[in-house]
Specification:
The protein is of the alpha/beta class. Helices cover about 30% and strands about 20% of the residues. The protein contains 18 helices and 30 strands. A hairpin with an 8-residue loop joins strand 18 and strand 19. The radius of gyration is 27 Å and the shape is globular.
Length: about 650
């Protein structure tokens, strides 16, 4: 065959046995378009139909001596799979015992023909000169200079407070810091990738970057965009021009051959955990990409995650703290009864009531609560048992003061409810959500506007005027000039949730809320004591992360060790454990699951991770192949994996109920 007449293709399929490169002959008619990275259609005999894939590389040699199948079509002449993204996807999938195609599906958006037609030729696009790099405020210039110039890794403690980046536009100071870091990378002629967990943080970051850099140098990539806009921006990332790429967890897979910086904001946020196989966390993908492309990497947060703390302790990343800014004024308080009757009904202690009253004289006051809704849970007034739906046995809740109680699961109205335990008919509210808290605080502080911000009421900013903002964790709006007081309610209730990360998650959520306060504004934390209160008062969350990691190391919990969850029929799971290349630290289980399945957890050292993942991947392929071969004759073929052995590495879900 002539030169480069063979295409090595990765099939876009979730089947683990197809997670390798297949060789196809390139017909003469496709020679001009069949380039590395383009989407193609190829025949696949095992499925009996045409499938899509990506050309990973072109070659003129192949070990196979027979006749190769030919490419059926080149879907688009635009290369969407860049070499650096392919390397990242392959490495990340191997680490997680997963498929590279599943990883690429997260990073490569769906094709949009109109976006391809409207894409200008890179040679015809002119860009305005870049402004000078902005010094990173509150941080030592020498430390930041070394970080950027020598492509180091760092954990940055984010500065607290808010800043006005344009007339009437306020963002958290952390967003300004990220924008300043990006300007330094861009000034060196390299691309910067900035990742945030949700749209609220992304809106702040975009505003901060827009205040420093030209709009044509900023590309947004996230699922909230239209398909055409997202795909068009994705195609532009393949240009040689350096950009600032802003997005959510999938942004770390954006093409950037000349990558200079990756910044991940608040890596402990659960939204960075990928729910689709192979369940790769944004933090892990960023670490792998930094190693491959030798760029700078920054994890920035108000409260350091235990995963980042482990990397700091082993010397893999450096810790950098800001200076020139006073830590927030945090006041922990017990659940003592307020002297004000209406404030007591709203669960506000005397110290918090006084702070809120004083703050309302100057501007907005933030009140954080644990849950949205009005009454998150209802109970029988006679026997105190949880009120449950008569249709599906789900818990009942009440959405507003005048709403009819309804089932949280199926939505059925509890019109003629009767308790299954005592036959009672009266309900009482247990706990308070944003709606009920807003009603109670409205009575405790008459004459002030009350604003609810939660999943149903998405408020991004509030004006600098006296008002009470009732928000759930992560839904707090940005206040012009910052909040004049921050009240954190339901501390004991938040900590009562059974989870390995409950204390870490609460500290992160509380720290993020406190950081929204104006300089010098008091923050009152209700019902929290011990090491958590100490970490907030001293504003040394890294001390708590260090102690938490030490406890997990002693108990052999993640991230002190790696874990893998194996789910399947008990013979498959038992056989998989017996074939591991190294003896695991522990084998927990098996635990019975529905449909005759079991779940077993194995714990192993980081040094054994590559060998364990490789063997588990081989066992998954073998189990899937056996399962498909046992299909009854004449049964329809499917491109979906059939039940066999399911593997989830670094899975924390089994540690919820400890």
């Amino acid at each position: 065959m002539s030169e480069a007449s063979i295409a090595r293709v990765l099939i876009d399929s979730p089947l683990p046995q197809l997670d390798r490169l297949f060789d196809y002959a390139v017909p003469e008619k496709f020679r001009a378009e069949a380039r590395a990275g383009v989407r193609v259609k190829v025949p696949l005999r095992t499925l009996g139909r045409l499938v899509e894939g990506w050309i990973v590389e072109l070659t003129d040699t192949v070990a196979y001596a027979g006749k190769l199948s030919e490419l059926d079509a080149v879907i688009s002449p635009f290369p969407v799979l860049s070499p650096e993204v392919w390397t990242l996807a392959r490495t990340a999938a191997d680490r997680a015992a997963g498929n590279a195609a599943d990883v690429l599906r997260l990073g490569i958006p769906k094709r949009h023909a109109r976006a391809e037609k409207s894409l200008p030729e890179p040679a015809t696009v002119t860009y305005d000169p870049l402004p000078e790099a902005r010094a990173v405020s509150y941080f030592d210039a020498g430390a930041i200079g070394t970080l950027i110039a020598e492509h180091k890794r760092a954990a940055l403690a984010a500065p607290t407070g808010v800043a006005e980046v344009a007339p009437g536009v306020w963002v958290g100071r952390w967003a300004v810091t990220m924008a300043e870091l990006a300007s330094q990378a861009l000034a060196r002629g390299t691309t910067a990738i900035l990742a945030t967990p949700d749209f609220r943080d992304q809106e702040q970051l975009e505003a901060a970057v827009a205040a420093l850099l030209p709009a044509e140098r900023v590309l947004r990539l996230d699922a909230r965009q239209s398909v055409q806009k997202r795909y068009g921006n994705f195609l532009r990332t393949h240009e040689d021009t350096p950009f600032v790429i802003i997005g959510n967890r999938s942004a770390v897979y954006a093409p950037a051959s000349n990558l200079g910086l990756i910044v991940v904001w608040d890596d402990g946020d659960p939204l960075y955990s990928e729910n689709l196989t192979p369940y790769i966390h944004t933090r892990d993908a960023a670490l792998l990409r930094q190693e491959q492309q030798h760029c700078s990497l920054v994890f920035m947060s108000h409260s350091r995650s235990t995963e980042v703390q482990r990397l700091v302790e082993v010397g893999w990343i450096a810790a950098i703290s800001p200076g020139g800014i006073r830590p927030p004024k945090v006041i922990p308080t017990a659940n003592q009864e307020s002297q004000d009757r209406l404030a007591a009904l709203a669960r506000i202690p005397s110290s918090a009531w006084k702070a809120a009253r004083a703050g309302l004289d100057e501007g907005p006051v933030l009140v954080q609560v644990a849950r949205p809704g009005y009454a998150p849970r209802l109970a029988c007034a006679e026997c105190s048992q949880t009120a449950r739906c008569t249709t599906c046995a789900g818990p009942l809740a009440q959405r507003s003061a005048s709403a009819t109680p309804s089932c949280v699961w199926c939505g059925a109205l509890a019109v003629k409810w009767r308790c299954r335990e005592c036959d009672g008919t009266r309900l009482r509210m247990v706990g308070s959500g944003t709606g009920r808290t807003a009603d109670e605080l409205g009575r405790a502080f008459p004459g002030y506007r009350v604003i609810v911000a939660d999943g149903e009421h998405q408020i991004l900013t509030v004006a600098n005027e006296p008002s009470l903002i009732i928000a759930t964790r992560g839904a707090e709006p940005i206040a012009e000039g910052g909040y004049r007081a921050v009240i954190l309610l339901d501390g004991a209730g938040m900590l009562a949730r059974e989870s390995l990360r409950v204390a870490e998650d609460c500290l992160r959520a509380w720290s993020n809320a406190i950081a929204l306060g104006a300089d010098g504004a008091p923050s009152v934390v209700v019902g929290v004591g011990g090491s958590l209160a100490t970490a907030l008062v001293t504003w040394r969350q890294e001390d708590f992360a260090q102690a938490e990691l030490a406890d997990r190391r002693e108990l052999r919990f993640p991230p002190a060790v790696r874990v893998a969850t194996l789910t399947g029929k008990i013979p498959l799971v038992s056989d998989a454990i017996s074939q591991l290349p190294v003896a695991p630290l522990d084998v927990l289980g098996p635990v019975d699951l529905p449909d005759g399945l079991v779940r077993t957890i194995i714990r192993f050292d980081y040094k054994d991770g590559a060998a364990v993942a490789e063997q588990l991947k081989a066992l998954v392929v073998a189990a899937t192949t056996v399962s498909r071969s046992s299909r009854k004759p004449g049964a329809p073929r499917s491109s979906q994996p059939t039940p066999g052995l399911r593997v989830h590495l670094d899975d924390l879900e089994p540690f919820v109920d400890l």
